[in-house]
Amino acid sequence: MSFSHKSLLGLKDLTAEEILYLLEESKAFRKILERDVKRVPTLRWLAVVNLFFEASTRTRISFELAEKRLSADVVNFSASTSSVKKGETLRDTVNNILAMKIDMIVIRHSSVGASHYVERATGVPVINAGDGTNEHPTQALLDLYTIRERFDHFNGLKVTILGDIRHSRVARSNICGLKKLGAKVVLCAPKTLLPPYPEALGVEYTTDIDEALSGANVVNVLRLQLERQKGGYIPSLREYRMFWGLTAERTKLLDPDHIIMHPGPINRGVEIDSDVADSVDNVILEQVTNGVAVRMAVLYILAGRIKE
Hints:
Rossmann fold; 11 helices
């Protein structure tokens, strides 16, 4: 297996074989995280900039840690403390950073397609850390890695994605990956939080949470992205929790062999109750650890493309 792309902009453009290749490569880096000495000199020649135009905790720290574990030189950029506040354009920001001889860019931006634009404008490898409501490929890869570690396969697994799917780039990347790997995907949300024309995604969808959870092997719970909502999507948080929140009682509908996932941050008592979020069935913290390994693998693979 191999990976033919210069950048990682989304899972939509990857084949099933390429996704599996990334997951396989992640295994070796997951083992490194279990060692006493977790740093390797593999990418000590590489300079990476993390361009984050949106707030982030898990993704930003995970990328920075992955880069440092590989001994790369790391530069962190935050829009809130940069010349963007003075009116500097994205292109000028990127060009100035490239003039400092950066080898690779990790970017999170509120605009769909920002990572594609940066790749075209710069010619260096770009990793999409989330662009608007479009894709978040490394989050989906760590989700896929976590599922594979538990079940060792995807064929026939029922994976329910529950929550604010309309505004979720995580959902879109997961749908792409899961479909290509043979899982059965079911979307569940109030009608207002399902994506427009969900049938075009080629997956099942429902507003009935009991139907969606029945026999599911995996439930990936998404938070309500209130910062992206302009109002009117749900009557209240209390009503949302009542009809679509994952409660302990509702987990009884899942397949006996199941896992509960969440990309974070968690709104406890809204999309998921605290006793479920803290139960032995959840793999939320495993996802966080696996995210570092997956991002190490992606950085390593794309760095290899630079040297070809």
